[in-house]
Design a protein that fits this description.
Helix 5 links the parallel strand 6 and strand 7. The chain has eight helices and eight strands. Helix 6 packs parallel to helix 8. It is α/β, with parallel strands linked by helices. Strands 1-8-7-6-5-4-3-2 form an eight-stranded parallel β-sheet. It is globular. The two termini are 14 Å apart. Bound molecules: D-xylitol-5-phosphate and zinc ion. The site of zinc ion has 6 residues, from strand 2.
Length: 222
């Protein structure tokens, strides 16, 4: 089954609770928080206080994507705020293995993200430490960017590796996901779809989530 993770980055920040209720009603299972620091990426977004404020209002899986230069300094604050999954960028971690263990110790599920230009071999010695790999399908920093098709063979190669090594890991994609690109990434082997603009940019949230689920489902059975 494909998991849909709406990215709050594209939501109406003045009405976050209502936005979360709408995507929950629409059938989303996760909520994706894009945390940006103005250093690792050229943008600033939210911090642990936003995660904590929504935690008491929602039972969705909180999927926290840290786009921070020193993620190790923020694992505990986000764990305390209510994160279920914490994703760190391989490019941001000098001691990636240690940071992933830190996430598990803090009581969360660890995940690692790779930018479009980062090769899959950086995963070689850390796959035992993660529950999910996030392959970025845009360069991180902003919502509403175009999907990068060059990542499709990378998704397929990673999905193939998981199969060969009998690893039961989630493969998430993030950036430029629409019903059209959802079909492509699911065919390649992705099973968690992050979508911001395609959901919150659409007045009919239920229809938007359904279109993504349908696009993913078509590919699973074809
Ligand atoms: C990009 C973020 C994404 C982004 C997705 O840096 O990690 O989660 O918000 O937004 P869309 O779906 O609009 O490309
Ligand atoms: Zn993200």
């Amino acid at each position: 089954m494909t998991i849909i993770a709406p990215s709050l980055l594209a939501a109406d920040f003045a009405n976050l609770q209502q936005e979360v209720e709408q995507v929950t009603e629409a059938g989303a299972q996760w909520l994706h928080f894009d945390i940006m620091d103005g250093h690792f990426v050229p943008n600033l977004t939210m911090g642990p206080a936003t995660v904590a404020a929504l935690r008491s209002k929602s039972k969705l899986v909180f999927d926290v994507h840290l786009m921070l230069a020193r993620p190790q300094d923020f694992i505990e604050p986000f764990a305390r705020a209510g994160a279920d999954i914490i994703t760190v960028h391989a490019e941001a971690c000098i001691h990636l293995h240690r940071v992933l263990q830190q996430i598990r110790t803090a009581g969360c599920r660890p995940a690692v993200a790779l930018n479009p230009a980062t090769p899959l071999y950086v995963l070689d010695y850390i796959l035992d430490e993660v529950d999910m790999v996030l392959l970025m399908t845009v360069n991180p920093g902003f919502g509403g960017q175009d999907f990068i098709p060059a990542v499709l063979p990378k998704i397929a190669a990673l999905a193939q590796r998981f199969k060969q090594e009998q690893r039961n890991l989630l493969l998430q994609v993030d950036g430029g996901i629409t019903p059209e690109t959802a079909a492509l990434v699911c065919r390649a082997g992705a099973n968690v779809l992050v979508a911001g603009s395609a959901i919150f940019g659409c007045p009919d949230r239920i229809g938007a989530v359904n279109s993504l689920i349908q696009a993913a489902g078509i590919m699973e059975t074809s």
